[in-house]
Recover the amino acids of this structure.
């Protein structure tokens, strides 16, 4: 299993776009190489037989504590909106989306 | 040939869970508040905040799972679904991908032709809602209200088991009925408490492979769901029959123009790069918890219907109608409790009550006539105080608030049924004397005319005569 699919520059550009990151053309090559190195490490770990082992979704051997269903928050929108670039009628204004 | 195509539909239904506070914060979920007054630092995704899980969502999700015969995921984990949109301030939605709380199960739907069908449920998982984008013009900008961000949802995903718009609507209605019965959700569709995404594809009859599907998003009424699916079926049919190919895409239904149109590709970027939510630990749902939920579950619509037909001998149609709505069923059962007559109660609930509610556009919860008052009216029919006809007058009077109780109104208006032979006989004698022709015809074998005489007596007494007694008396005198 050494001939794994390598990440291409196209994949890196796509992931960058999904993550809303601007990646300069000249950085693509080194980023692609870096990612492939990481994947190689992951491949190495893949070779360990983990059948029958429950995947670890959290390193702590604990379960989630739950909160009772009560309203504990108060209206602080003026405070929160004091750092917003633009608001109107209580709404946050953002650059136009769709059409 | 249109009949050559088989329609394949799967639904994703987002049900808003009826909790006081949000799924990961202590903000209120109350509908209709001023913009952003119910959006806390957690809902806004401000740096440094952590989600705190609301315990109330688990019994609701588990109750739904048990009601559809699903497997309950005893280890319930959360994941992040990543995408960028201004009404999702964190840049990800917390949802469940690999280990959802409800796995499998099914619901039975009833169709108009009287047949029924089983629709399989793939899974149901907990997640948070996003905020709301307002695209009206704010000087060329979009307004964002995050009150809804973090509202708890149960997303119920069906298998592609439906074959027509009718089946899809019947399935959505069944889910709606279940979640309202179980108090999992208030089911208020106008407020967005139940929203459907419809996956629709077409394939040639007999084909094994599914065709390319489209997803029509955010349909919030049963009528729009039916229209949207019908529209999408004919749109795809047209494309396929002219030799084209259906593009896999997400579409929006526009009820005003009755059409679906594609959303922009940027919004449909389907690579969500899910990964386990590092801020939350697994939630363990043990057998004891599941049993507690099971014990607290109310009777389900199908169980109610069965009890009505088997124990109370209600006709199938009445049982189905009354059990279909929890409010109506509760009213009906209170009425039975007060008059001890399920059949008469069902007749009155189905007839006068539903008719009046529809006419005045009222919900059962807002009925001006209480179930007990209706039960008392029915009791007065049963004990012979009033006839069924007079009872309708009493019903109307109580509906219009002219009296507090049936007894009060019967008393005040002098509506007590006349069962006194001494009082009825002279009236009957007079009618016989006034109609010699009919008397002759009756005696010559036209016995159907009995109804004519009884009718005359009822008219003469203003409907107050006891019809059974009049029947006997008239028959005796004409005999």
């Amino acid at each position: 299993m050494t001939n794994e699919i390598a990440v291409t520059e196209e994949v890196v550009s796509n992931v960058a776009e999904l993550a809303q990151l601007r990646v300069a053309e000249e950085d693509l090559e080194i980023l692609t190489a870096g990612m492939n190195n990481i994947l190689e490490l992951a491949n190495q770990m893949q070779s360990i037989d983990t059948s029958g082992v429950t995947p670890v979704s959290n390193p702590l051997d604990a379960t989630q504590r739950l909160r009772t269903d009560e309203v504990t928050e108060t209206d602080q929108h003026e405070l929160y909106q004091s750092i917003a670039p633009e608001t109107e009628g209580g709404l946050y204004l953002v650059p136009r989306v769709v059409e | 040939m249109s009949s050559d195509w088989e329609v394949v539909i799967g639904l994703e239904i987002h049900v808003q869970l009826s909790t006081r506070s949000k799924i990961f914060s202590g903000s209120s979920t109350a509908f209709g508040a001023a913009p952003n007054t119910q959006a806390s630092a957690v809902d806004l995704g401000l740096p440094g905040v952590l989600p705190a899980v609301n315990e109330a969502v688990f019994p609701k999700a588990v109750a739904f799972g048990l009601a559809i015969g699903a497997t309950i995921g005893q280890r319930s984990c959360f994941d992040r679904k990543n995408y960028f949109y201004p009404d999702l301030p964190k840049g990800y939605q917390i949802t469940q991908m690999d280990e959802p709380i409800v796995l499998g199960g099914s619901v039975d739907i009833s169709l108009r032709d009287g047949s029924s069908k089983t629709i399989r449920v793939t899974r149901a998982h907990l997640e948070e809602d996003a905020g709301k984008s307002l695209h009206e013009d704010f000087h060329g900008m979009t307004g964002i209200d995050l009150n809804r961000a973090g509202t708890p949802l149960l997303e119920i995903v069906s298998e592609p088991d439906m074959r027509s718009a009718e089946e899809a609507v019947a399935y959505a209605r069944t889910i709606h009925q279940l979640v309202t019965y179980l108090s999992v959700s208030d089911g208020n569709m106008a407020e967005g408490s139940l929203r459907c995404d419809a996956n629709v594809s077409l394939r040639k009859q007999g084909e094994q492979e599914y065709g390319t599907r489209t997803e029509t998003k955010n349909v919030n009424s049963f009528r729009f769901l039916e229209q949207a699916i019908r529209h999408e079926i004919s749109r795809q049919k047209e494309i396929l029959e002219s030799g084209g190919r259906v593009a896999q895409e997400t579409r929006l239904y526009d009820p005003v123009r009755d059409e679906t149109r594609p959303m922009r590709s940027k919004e449909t970027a389907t690579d969500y790069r899910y990964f386990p939510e590092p801020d939350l630990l697994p939630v363990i749902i043990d057998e004891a918890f599941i049993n507690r939920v099971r014990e607290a579950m109310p009777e389900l619509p199908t169980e109610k219907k069965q009890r009505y037909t088997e124990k109370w001998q209600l006709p199938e149609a009445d049982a189905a109608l009354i059990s279909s709505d929890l409010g109506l069923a509760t009213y009906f059962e209170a009425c039975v409790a007060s008059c001890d007559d399920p059949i008469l109660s069902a007749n009155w609930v189905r007839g006068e009550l539903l008719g009046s509610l529809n006419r005045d556009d009222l919900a059962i919860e807002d009925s001006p006539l209480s179930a007990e008052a209706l039960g008392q009216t029915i009791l007065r029919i049963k004990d012979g105080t009033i006839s069924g006809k007079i009872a309708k007058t009493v019903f109307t009077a109580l509906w219009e608030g002219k009296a507090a109780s049936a007894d009060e109104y019967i008393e005040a208006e002098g509506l007590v049924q006349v069962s006194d032979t001494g009082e009825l006989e002279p009236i009957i004698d007079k009618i016989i004397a006034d109609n010699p022709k009919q008397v002759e015809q009756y005696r010559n074998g036209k016995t159907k005319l009995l109804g004519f005489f009884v009718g005359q007596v009822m008219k003469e007494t203003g409907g107050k005569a006891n019809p059974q007694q009049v029947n006997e008396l008239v028959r005796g005198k004409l005999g």
In short: The mean pLDDT of chain B is 91. The longest strand of chain B covers residues 116-128. Chain B is about 40% helix and 20% strand.
